[in-house]
Every structure is written in structure tokens, then in C-alpha cells.
Write a structure and sequence with these properties.
single chain
Length: 401
Amino acid sequence: MPATGSRRIVPAARTEDIKYAVRDIVVLAQKVAATGRKMLYLNIGDPNLYDFAPPAHMVEAVARAMRDNRNGYTASSGLPEAVEAIRAEADRVGIRGVRHTYVTSGASEAIELALAALANPGSNVLTPSPGYPLYTAVLAKLGVENRPYYLDEDNDWAPDADDIAARIDEKTCAIVLINPNNPTGAQYSTETLRRIVDLAIEKNLVILSDEIYDKLIFDGRQHTATASLSEEAKVITFNGLSKSYVVPGWRIGWGIVSGPAEDLADYCEAIQKMERARLCANHPEQYAIKPALEGSQQHIADMMVPLTRRRDITYERLNAIDGISCVKPGGAFYAFPRIEGDVDDNAFVSRVIEETGVVVVPGSGFGQKPGTAHFRVVFLPDEPTLEDAYAGIREQVSRRE
């Protein structure tokens, strides 16, 4: 006899808290687009959708690898020449005491392997709020507590080391830093980083330092690699080709484990166990790593010219809207404006999308202080698109008043 009653498959409880606002908002945008409204997308940090492209020598390196049939597996930790190039890049930015380097399917996989090898259910990881939602999604999947610390909007979205210290307990195993920060565009000072590094050393915590936007820095300022500040600190530095080298779809990232060798030996082996279990990252695309890191960086200087103009337009136009304030981004290509007053950011963003076709992402998808409301914009689009988008937001805000 056929079974009776419900036949619905119940998903795992660990999926209940997994959200990814950047993509989730597309569902509403698609419904609005189906009505025929012109859409202006300021939600996805993909430079290839706009007027940016990777350097030709990187594309040729991958094409050559494919023609030479480098289409099978490679070493689990990465193509040897790519690993060597990453280690040389780490040395150039001052990272010493490198214990392990591993190439992954985007920096996202490097992050997930690092967390999975470190954090047990019942432990907690300190993550920035606002911050990139991948971290909270991975922690939810692992059954690990996400413990947010709040960035200071009144101090250019800098982390507060005292606030971080107050959230540490005996179950804390790591501190996440995102610098430059997604979604705020904040670039952290060396002094701020040094205080957090000293705290991590004192408390014997691993620092997960996400530096994927380290080359996209405005106004002639310099980026400081967290791991460069101390050889005593246990740091995993995440980076990759996707943003600075304009190939997010190639899914090539990496992690660099640095710090005291004996203290990190078991952890490095745990990461390598998981690397071996998933075989390897995309092989032909790894041939782009060495030419990317060691070849001409002119494309980055060329990118920063239009990005600076678009950053300035974003900062000026948003701050000119009554009821909106915006901290000036110091890096990456994001801004995180605040909506003043008693406003629900999800409702605000839904109205903006439905009434203007401008697609932005609600701040609650990235985390924010209780009682505040924000939204994230991506200022990769060309200047006319940005002007139209910010005019639409201004009109929607004026209708709300």
C-alpha cells in the first residue's frame, strides 16, 4: 500500500538561518522587471557587468593552459607555481612566518575551510556588523554561534577594539576582519589593526582577515595586511583574483596561514584534510595567478580613475538627500548609507525597487546596530546610471516625507 500522510522532505535545521541578502533581493527585482519597469542594479559587486575587464595576459594564460590540456586535477592545495606566487605576494606585503597556503574555489571556499577546520558547535566567532553575509551563513551551517561586534559609523565605520574585547569569552575561537569592508567600504588604519592583533595574541584567538579588496584603495592611501603586524599573531589572510583582477566567475581565491609554526601545525593539517577531500580548485584558471600577481598592475590604476569618480558621485548625491547620510568609502566599491528616522530598511528597499526600479540591498542583510537602518549600494555602474539611480532614491525619499 502507498504511504499515507505527508511526504514532504524536511530540510536540515541548519539551513533555517542561512540568508544572503545580495541575491535574495533579486527575487523582488525580477518581479518588478517583469512589469516592464526599467531596472537600475546597484546590488551585485561584479565588475564584469559594467565597463571593467581582466588583463589580457591573464586571459591568455588560462587559454594556453586549456589548449595544453591542463584540464585535469592539480594538487589539492593548489598549482605549485600559483602557491609560490601567492607566497611571494605575501612576502611583498610584509607577511612573514607563512605556514600554509591553499588555493580555493573563490575566497569563499577558503573562508569556509578555515572556519570548518577551527570552530566546533558551541563555540563562537566574532564577526563585524556590518559585514559580508557569507560568514554568518557558514557559521549557521556549522552550528557555530555568530557573535557580532559593531563597527563605529561615527568613526568611518572602524572596528572598536574595546567592543571586540568585551564580547570575547572562553568559547570564542576567532575574530573576523574585513578590510576594506564589504558593505561599508571602510579601510582600517594600521593603529586600529594593531590593537586587534594585540588582543588576539593576548586571548590566543585566530584572526580571519578578509583582504579581497586590498588593491582597490582610494585617495592614494596604503593598505596594511593584518598579518604583517606581528609574527606572533595567528592569522589567515584571504584574497583572490575576483575583485582586483576582475574575474569573479573564475572562482579563484586563497588562504594564507601565518604565525607560530608549532601552534598552527595541527590546524594547518586539518585544513589540508578538507582540501584533499574536495580534490582541488579550478585547475586551468590557477595558471592566471602567477601572471596576475607578478605581471603589470596597470589595470588597477586604470580602474581606480572611474571608480574614484563614481565613489565621489555616490558620496555627494546620497548626502544631498534629506534623510540620508553616507560615510565616504575608503576602498572597494560599496557604500552603506543610513536612512534617518524610524524606518524599516527592508520596507524602504522594497519601496525603492517597486517604485523606482533601483535595486539596492537592505542593511539588515549585512548587520547593523539595533535602531538604525541602512542600505548598500554598489557604485560600479557608469556615471549616468548612478545619477539616475540616486535621483530615483531622492524622489522616493521625498515622497516618504
